[in-house]
Amino acid sequence: MGIDPGIKVGYALIDLDGKLIGSGSTKGKNFDKVISIVSKFGIIGLVACDVNPPSKFSRKIAARFGVKCFFPRKSISKETKRMIGPGFKNAHEQDAYSAAIKAYRHYSNRFRRIDKIYPDKKEEYKYFILRGISIGKIKEKN
Questions:
Q1: How many domains does the chain have?
Q2: 98 part of a folded domain
């Protein structure tokens, strides 16, 4: 999940294959409203921001879902956001989508390896990777 808090809170959700499954924005930083909306899309594996450092609101959303808050080393430029999400008319959704895609790209090599080596457990293993648990540790427990 990518999030862009501000006067309007933009959100974008992608699946574990990097495909957009939902996006939108809501007026005001209403924490409970955002949680309610994005929860309808399924399990949240990560909350991604487009800025460094991430906002308190973003960290609070991540904590509520019990997941990591991903943020880039350097804040994502407006030009890069336009290149990543050219079809968005709403800048908040575009920013949220860019954050989600940046996070997905960060994990994409590991995700591709999981797809090849563990196709029957790929979704489960990808969630472990997002939580910072290595596949080696997962296999030790099984």
A1: 1
A2: yes
DSSP 3-state of 28: coil
- Residue 105: pLDDT above 70? yes
Look at the pTM and tell me if it is higher than 0.85.
yes
Structure tokens that stand for 130 in this block: 């997002």
Interatomic CA distance for residues 102 and 2, integer angstroms: 9
* Cβ pair 46, 68 in contact under 8 A: yes
**Residues 15-63: pLDDT tens digits?**
999 999 999 999 988 889 999 999 999 999 999 999 999 999 999 999 9
Euclidean distance between CA atoms 133 and 76, whole angstroms: 27
Can you give the CATH number for the domain in which 11 is found?
A: 3.30.420.140
Q: Determine the Cα–Cα distance for residues 133 and 85; give it in Å rounded to an integer.
A: 30
